[in-house]
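Input record (Table S2, row 537):
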Amino acid sequence: MARLTAVFFCLMLILSCGTIFSSALTTFSLEDKLHELEVRLEAKIEAKNAQLEEKVAQLEAQLELNNELRQELALKVIQLEAKNVQLEVKIQDQERILTSLLEAAELPVSTDSKLFPVKKEISIRSTGKSGIPRTCRELRAADPSLSSGMHWIDPDGQGVGDNPIYVYCDMTSGSTSLLHDSESSLNVGHCAEAGCYSRPINYNSSIGQIKALMELSTECHQSIKYDCNFSPFKLNGVAYSWWNDREGNAQHFWSGSNTDGVHTCQCGIDGNCVDSAVKCNCDTISPIQLVDDGVITDKNVLPVTRLNFGRTQLETSSGVHTLGRLVCTGSVTLTGLPSSCADLQMIGHTLNGFYSVVGSAKMESVYCDFTKLPDDAGFQKWIGYADVKSAPVHFYVQRNSSFYPQNTPIPFELVVMNEGNAMNLTSGKFTAPRPGTYYFSFAGVARLSSSSSSVSLSSYLYLNGKLIGSSNVDETNTPVVQYSVLTLQSTLNLKKDDQVWVTISYPSGTSSFLSDSIYHYTHFTGFMLEEEIGASL
Ligand SMILES: *[C@@H]1O[C@H](CO)[C@@H](O)[C@H](O)[C@H]1NC(C)=O
Ligand SMILES: *[C@@H]1O[C@H](CO)[C@@H](O)[C@H](O)[C@H]1NC(C)=O
Ligand SMILES: *[C@@H]1O[C@H](CO)[C@@H](O)[C@H](O)[C@H]1NC(C)=O
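Output record (2-acetamido-2-deoxy-beta-D-glucopyranose complex):
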């Protein structure tokens, strides 16, 4: 057993000794390794630390950025909320306007609307063009898809004059109807005196706008019907009923266009009144139900501003009037070129200023004040002639040698200028290319021979072969040759193709002539002062 133990011990010893031995061998390199590892680990940790620090810094930066963005977003949200509130207010405003417009469209309309079909719908739409049209016709032209109904127009032009007006537009005919407060059939009741019933007619428009609309339209009319029973307009020379025109003047015609004060109705014009002795059915003296139905077409006096009736005092008498709207159609077109501010306004000018217009003979300048009506003082101010020439005409020609023939147009040899080629040097004749006012000047030197008697030289200005002016130099008993200057000036109104030239002559038996040389003593010049522009437009 002891042996065994010893062996075992020894075995252990050997084993352990061996281990110890080998440990002793490697102890030194392990320490080194450990150290090396430590160093490496430290380096690694440091690197990792640095990385982490960097990352932290990045994250911090990111965080800061995020914060800023969040604040910005919050601000934006607040702004948007404010905008939203504003928009809501706007929408409410628009809704209010829409409602009031729709309410306005529900207007009292005449039951008798044969003149135009009434559609109670309203369309609020832009014309697609900027600016408000002047008539329904213009509105229809701007947007043919619009339906008939109430629309805004501005007859006297946008931005000037009176406010736009709200009218009924018939988009089929393009007509404009002005509504008023008395369109339904109204009973005049019973009263005796002339005009004892008097009703003002109120149009929802200024008289300026009404006039402007009528001026733009080729035709305007207003229907008027009077259902009567023993209630004459006129009886025994007394006018019991009349209407007032736009100037407030009394009118006695109930149809057509008749401004000379004559009392008549449609049957009077047609010659088919119930009683052929009177001009209106209602003027018939008998208690029967009659009617006068007419259409007033006089653009110069429309619209009807007041209706006056009388002599309906009897129980059996009755009178009911029905006044239609003022309806205007068509558009006055300007034929030719504008010759006044009214023409300019008609073609759409609305800005005050200086304009050129065609005058009777010349172009003229006018100042137009479109804030005024055409018949107002100061609407057009005449400034003067505008110097417009459709083509320039001027010449200056000379001679280079003496000229002897008498009564022959003097030809010219040198041309300094001949703008418009109106001067023919060969023939010596000027031919007016256009009608207008022209100026001419001729100058030359007369050579008079020595003579014991009288010697002279004349120059003559001819227009179409007719002598219109002359100049003359003469000498008596001249011992030596004399030189004298001849001149001629003239301002002439010429028609197209009129011809002007100069000739010379001297008494027979003498031998004077027009002296010239390389010094060019002979001059003929001329030019157009003003053109009669009408002929070339
Ligand atoms: C009258 O005209 C005004 C503006 O000019 C408009 O606001 C109103 O709606 C019109 N009323 C009628 C009954 O046409
Ligand atoms: C004018 O006449 C002279 C003499 O005949 C000639 O020599 C000269 O060239 C002429 N001048 C002109 C501009 O024609
Ligand atoms: C100028 O007059 C001459 C002589 O009359 C004529 O032969 C010639 O055709 C005229 N020239 C022009 C451009 O008319």
